[in-house]
Design goal:
About 70% of the residues lie in helices and about 0% in strands. The protein is mostly helical and about 300 residues long. It starts with 9 loop residues before the first helix and ends in a 7-residue tail after the last helix.
Length: about 300
């Protein structure tokens, strides 16, 4: 009888275990939409971060004699009604819009994850925290944002300066109105995780609740948290653009994609490119982030990974 078993390779026997993030990346690569979204999002980040270092034009420089110019060698995307270079304004405006999206997403993620873990792990906190979540879900978000910006904009501008004050206000206002979905998702996962054997074993030997949550619970709810983070970036960028389009975002000398849309709405018939370019950038950013979120959802789910 012939032994057909493959001999054990000593190198494979002593090879360190593969990092699970490589498995996540292998699964992520199979999602073509996610790869395309990642390529588009990286391109936009390079456009707003590296672009101003190459195209060194002041986005606030006025030149009335060159207003309403079409695309040319000196102005690849033309100029606006005040003679400002549209390409430079889109680059600098993208920095602000993307920064608002990232900061607001991070704040909303922290608030939602904290409330979700507390509500899911501690039974006595579940009902009041979920009723608070339902209350925020029932509020009309856009009017609430408008009220927050109207009430606190001037005071924060006096305290921190106009640009930083408005930036902090918009990030906080978006975060305080967007944490609810994350909290509900995290709570549902924590309710299931806290009954698992390893959590019960840790609790039986007297492990503090803080250590159980940080060591056992949070790592296992990483998948929905990261997916919620990607979707939160898209939602924050759209909300900031809406506020700027309504004239309640950053001041006129701080261009954002929403502000450029707002300023170009009166010229849409004569110069439609002024609203097309910022609209395309907003749409591409949101769409790419959503595709990345779909890819991460599949890659971080152990039931799908490896198929």
């Amino acid at each position: 009888m012939t032994d057909t078993a493959k001999p054990l390779n000593p190198d494979e026997a002593f090879r360190p275990p593969r990092n699970q993030w490589w498995d996540v990346w292998d699964q992520f690569k199979t999602h073509r939409g996610a790869l395309a979204g990642l390529a588009v999002f990286v391109s936009i980040i390079l456009f707003v971060v590296v672009g101003p270092l190459i195209w060194q034009v002041d986005p606030g420089q006025l030149n009335i004699r060159l207003r309403n110019q079409g695309p040319s060698r000196d102005f690849p995307l033309g100029t606006d009604q005040l003679g400002r270079d549209l390409l430079a304004r889109l680059m600098y405006g993208g920095r602000i819009s993307v920064a608002v999206g990232l900061v607001a997403m991070f704040l909303g993620l922290v608030i939602g994850t904290l409330i979700g873990v507390l509500a899911g792990y501690f039974k006595r906190l579940d009902s009041p925290l979920m009723r608070l979540t339902d209350l925020f879900l029932a509020l009309p978000l856009l009017p609430l944002l408008l009220i927050l910006v109207t009430l606190f904009r001037d005071s924060l501008a006096r305290t921190f300066g106009e640009s930083i004050g408005v930036f902090l206000l918009i990030c906080f206002a978006i975060a305080i109105t967007s944490w609810m979905q994350t909290a509900r998702i995290v709570r549902g996962d924590v309710l299931a995780l806290k009954e698992r054997e390893y959590v019960l074993a840790a609790r039986s030997i007297g492990t503090p609740s803080l250590r159980i949550n940080t060591r056992h619970v949070l790592p296992n709810v990483l998948s929905p948290i990261m997916v919620s983070a990607t979707l939160g970036i898209a939602s924050a960028i759209i909300t900031e653009s809406a506020l700027s389009f309504l004239g309640l975002g950053f001041p006129p000398d701080f261009p954002t994609w929403g502000r450029i849309l707002y300023e170009g709405r009166d010229w849409i018939e004569q110069y439609p490119a002024r609203v097309v370019w910022p609209g395309v950038l907003i749409s591409l950013t949101v769409l790419s982030v959503n595709y990345i979120g779909d890819g991460l959802r599949d890659a971080l789910d152990p039931r799908i990974r490896g198929r």
